[in-house]
Design a protein that fits this description.
By secondary structure, the chain is an all-alpha fold. The protein contains eleven helices and no strands. Helix 7 (102-114) packs across helix 11 (179-191). It is globular and about 50 Å long.
């Protein structure tokens, strides 16, 4: 019993930071639910290897962000690994009721499930698994991610501001998405439930 309680205690990098890096929880929450208004993504249930790669990419400059780059550069390998394990163990937040036009959600659902092959856009779920639950280690869960964050990342791939995707897969997809496509699919993904315990 004591061992399982100890295992549930978040690492200090998450709750207190390490002096040079602010606490991860200050932006992403202890539970990894993120902050949609501030643009901080959900980190709960990210595959540890995917999380660690993103931190390494921020450190190396192959992925850049004005807030995350200096934080990542101040994190040790141990900090990144313990943070990755912690957030991977957290339940994904439940999606709230959407106030977005149902037609927008329906368009996004169609893109996520069927893609738009006439424009070389594969379904989101072809790589990120049925219902966007992710495939470790390379394809993160996208179900339940904040719509604004998904929009920002798709736009970053589309413009070339983000380039750390495997084999430029996301860039190739994003370049063929319209702004309306991006908003629709982001809003749809934000409504999705997440993997239930035991599933």
């Amino acid at each position: 019993m004591a061992a399982s309680s100890a295992a549930a205690v978040p690492p200090s990098i998450v709750t207190q930071g390490n002096g040079a890096a602010v606490a991860c929880a200050s932006c992403h929450g202890v539970d990894g639910a993120g902050n949609p208004q501030a643009g901080f993504p959900v980190l709960a249930q990210l595959p540890p290897a995917y999380f660690a790669k993103q931190i390494a990419d921020f450190k190396a400059g192959t992925r850049t962000h004005p807030v995350m780059t200096p934080i990542a550069q101040a994190m040790s390998v141990e900090d990144a690994e313990s943070t990755a394990r912690h957030y991977a163990s957290q339940p994904r937040p439940k999606a709230g009721a959407s106030t977005v036009d149902p037609a927008v959600i329906a368009r996004g659902k169609n893109l996520a499930i069927n893609g738009a092959w006439d424009r070389q856009v594969p379904p989101c779920f072809k790589c990120h698994a049925v219902d966007g639950l992710g495939v470790a280690p390379a394809f993160p869960a996208i179900a339940g991610q904040h719509a604004a964050y998904t929009v920002s990342q798709l736009q970053a791939w589309k413009t070339g501001a983000r380039t750390n995707d495997p084999q430029k897969l996301m860039k190739a997809v994003a370049e063929n998405l319209t702004d309306d496509d991006i908003r629709s699919v982001a809003e749809y993904l934000a409504t999705l439930g997440t993997r239930r315990e035991g599933k």
